[in-house]
């Protein structure tokens, strides 16, 4: 629900007066929780493969297996998310938002209100820092502000406090990679089999595109004779994670550096 008032303090007092009855259910929070519960976005099943893995591992002098984990990262843009919805004439609206994707706001607000997109003009004057965090995750609050503006025919402004923004809008995707890599005594990789798991959160958002980019960056600047990389999107009960600069590339490239170091250390075997 949305509480609207003539001032922010009044709106916050109204929101605090709301009593919510709810039932506590088991929560899936981490990647490990999701794997244990089998909680995935099953419609995602992308992978990349090349070469003969069996032959690649047979040609290896050494085989390493392991797990690499990389945590999330808060965008911490200079200004939190904010928006204004201004009803105008002929059931038209002007939307002002600190978003990186005005067209997406226009589309989703139009869908929420049940009005044609051409009735909405969406503007972004200043973003206040974004880094990917204001591409999609501010849409829900713009839709929430649009509903009372539609019914009251009055301008509505919504700006998140910093703590609210950090709780609600998600971070860079935490990743976990399990790998099996075969290499010669000279350190040349002959085969790589890897599974990538990302903590997508409570909605699909941009998680599939982030994982696709991670899959395409899995071999980094190298060309392996044989590799298979499989992506898994973990469905969890946290804020939906989203775009962040690099968009899946930094997570998998960091893991590649760690594997490279392990292989180089193994050359003394």
Report the radius of gyration as a whole number of Å: 23 Å
Give the total of beta strands. 9
- Which percent range fits the helix content? 25-40%
- Low-confidence parts lasting 5 or more residues at pLDDT below 50? none
Listing every helix as H and every strand as E from the N terminus to the C terminus, the arrangement reads: HHEHEEEHEHEHEEHEH
Explain how this protein is built.
- With 269 residues, the protein is α+β, with helices and mostly antiparallel strands.
- Helix content is 31%, strand content 23%.
- It is built from 8 helices and 9 strands.
- The strands form 2 sheets. A 5-stranded mixed β-sheet has the order 1-9-8-7-2. The chain has a 4-stranded mixed β-sheet with strand order 5-4-3-6, with helices on one face.
- Helix 4 links the parallel strand 4 and strand 5 (120-123).
List keywords for this structure.
four-stranded mixed beta sheet, five-stranded mixed beta sheet, 8 helices, alpha+beta, elongated, 269 residues
What does this entry show, briefly?
This protein has 269 residues and is α+β, with helices and mostly antiparallel strands. The protein has 8 helices and 9 strands. Helix content is 31%, strand content 23%.
List the helices and strands and how they pair.
Layout: H1 8-17, H2 31-37, E1 47-50, H3 53-58, E2 62-70, E3 82-87, E4 93-97, H4 102-113, E5 120-123, H5 139-152, E6 156-159, H6 162-168, E7 175-183, E8 189-201, H7 207-216, E9 227-235, H8 249-266
Helix pairs in contact: 4-5, 7-8
């Amino acid at each position: 629900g949305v509480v609207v008032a003539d001032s922010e303090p009044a709106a916050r007092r109204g929101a605090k007066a709301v009593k919510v009855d709810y039932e506590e259910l088991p929560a899936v929070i981490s990647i490990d929780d999701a794997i244990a519960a089998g909680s995935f976005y099953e419609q995602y099943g992308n992978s990349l493969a090349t070469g003969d893995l069996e032959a690649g591992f047979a040609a290896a002098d050494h085989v390493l297996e392991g797990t690499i984990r990389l945590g999330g990262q808060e965008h911490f843009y200079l200004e939190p998310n904010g928006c204004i919805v201004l009803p105008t004439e002929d059931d038209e609206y002007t939307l002002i938002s600190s978003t990186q994707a005005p067209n997406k706001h226009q589309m989703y607000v139009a869908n929420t209100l049940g009005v044609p997109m051409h009735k909405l003009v969406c503007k972004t004057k200043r973003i206040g820092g974004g880094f990917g965090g204001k591409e999609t995750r501010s849409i829900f609050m713009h839709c929430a502000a649009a509903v009372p503006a539609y019914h009251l025919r009055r301008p509505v402004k919504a700006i998140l406090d910093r703590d609210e923004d950090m709780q609600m809008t998600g971070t860079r995707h935490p990743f976990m990679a399990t790998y099996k890599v075969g290499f010669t005594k000279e350190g040349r990789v002959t085969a790589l089999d890897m599974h990538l798991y990302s903590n997508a959160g409570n909605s699909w958002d941009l998680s599939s595109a982030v994982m696709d980019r991670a899959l395409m960056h899995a071999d980094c600047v190298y060309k392996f004779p044989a590799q298979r990389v499989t992506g898994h999107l973990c469905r969890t009960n946290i804020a939906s994670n989203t775009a962040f600069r690099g968009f899946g590339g930094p997570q998998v490239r960091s893991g590649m550096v760690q594997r490279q170091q392990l292989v180089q250390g193994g050359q003394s075997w």
